[in-house]
Amino acid sequence: MPVRVFDEKEIDLIREVFTSGQLSVLSGGKITGRFEAAFAEAMRAKHAVAMNAAMSVLHASVAAAGAGAGDEVICDPVCVFGAVAAMYNNAVPVFVDIDPITMNMNPDLIEAKITERTKALIVTHIWGLPAEMDRIMAIARKHNIIVIEDCAHALFATYKGRYVGTWGDVGSFSFQMSKQMGLGDGGIGITDNEEIAKTLGLFGGAPTFAAVAYGLHWNYRMTEQTAAIGLVQLERARGYIAELIEIARLYDEAVKGCDWLPLQQSQSESQNTYHFWTAIFRGEGYGISMDDFRQTLQEEKANVSIGYTGMPAYKHPLLQERLGYGSGCPLDCPLYTGSSNRYPDGLCPVAEDTIPRAVLVYTFYSKEYHQQNAEALHRAVAKLG
Length: 385
Ligand SMILES: Cc1ncc(COP(=O)(O)O)c(C=O)c1O
Description:
CATH superfamily of the domain at 8-234: Type I PLP-dependent aspartate aminotransferase-like (Major domain)
Order of helices and strands: HHEHEHEEHEEEEEHHHEEHEHHEH
CATH architecture of the domain at 8-234: 3-Layer(aba) Sandwich
CATH class of the domain at 8-234: Alpha Beta
Shape: globular
Bound molecules: pyridoxal-5'-phosphate
Strand order of the largest sheet: 1-9-8-5-4-2-3
CATH topology of the domain at 8-234: Aspartate Aminotransferase, domain 2
Helix content: 25-40%
Structural class: alpha/beta
Oligomer: single chain
Number of strands: 13
């Protein structure tokens, strides 16, 4: 482990759903509500709303923040998901560069990006390492901006002793199969804010015919079967996370003392929950090229991926070619009053430099696999000196 366990416990609860004949919360199913209550309690949040994916939660959260046509949403540039969620609601993503060591949004750079159009900020705890939430929240509160935490990589990660997802106005979690708690697909939003919870509920729970009374909402409900798996997996998830942390230690050990492969890490008190174990390649300063590193990893059969997508979010065709829908929306919305040249090269120089250097190990395989793989990484690093 962590290899996910799905056994009789899940099957029993799914059988209960089938036997009841209520496969949806809409027809009276009770399991989704139980899952939401259990997740909220586990996270020490007041409300949880389950949905069919984390993208749905992010979209609903952007809507709850009131960010729409003509508005801006601040995002970080490593993953594209925050920007996509902003665009789902016709808002324009504005990118803030990252810190080169945490790979998370750099709080020092946020204020310069805030305008009268800024309605929300989506911060990702990238690869499982918490962003500097106290500093981000202080800036957001000063400017009256809603903060959405994208915790898709960071289930049960903590920052200064508090779960990520509970610092901001909304926390979004993914149950997509690669994530720490995989349910096939699914997502959940947590919040202490009654108004936000109500809006999330219009996306996640209410029947469409009722939700139209409050505006335009999407049907993002989770099914009872997924919630049944979720209820049981939630009991197992802390065990998975404990093992992910142990697995990460194997890789920390494998690169210990290697100055050209510093770990992605935070100076603040935090617990990373390692969707990926991550280091950052800095070999050039030590006479080691990226090609040498790649070749040596291959020789030693170390299964390590380098560079993620190789580019920041704003370099994807979606943003560069202004793909979208409708008449120029969302990026060329006639209601938008900001600059039209928004995503030039060099916009986030640290992200442009650091993303291709990210050395990533996906943590969700057996411990035995990782022991061997960490040894292979160690051999590669030792060979290069
Ligand atoms: C950081 C991040 N946010 C959001 C998502 C979207 O999650 P989902 O597939 O549940 O919609 C992902 C999925 O890979 C992700 O990595």
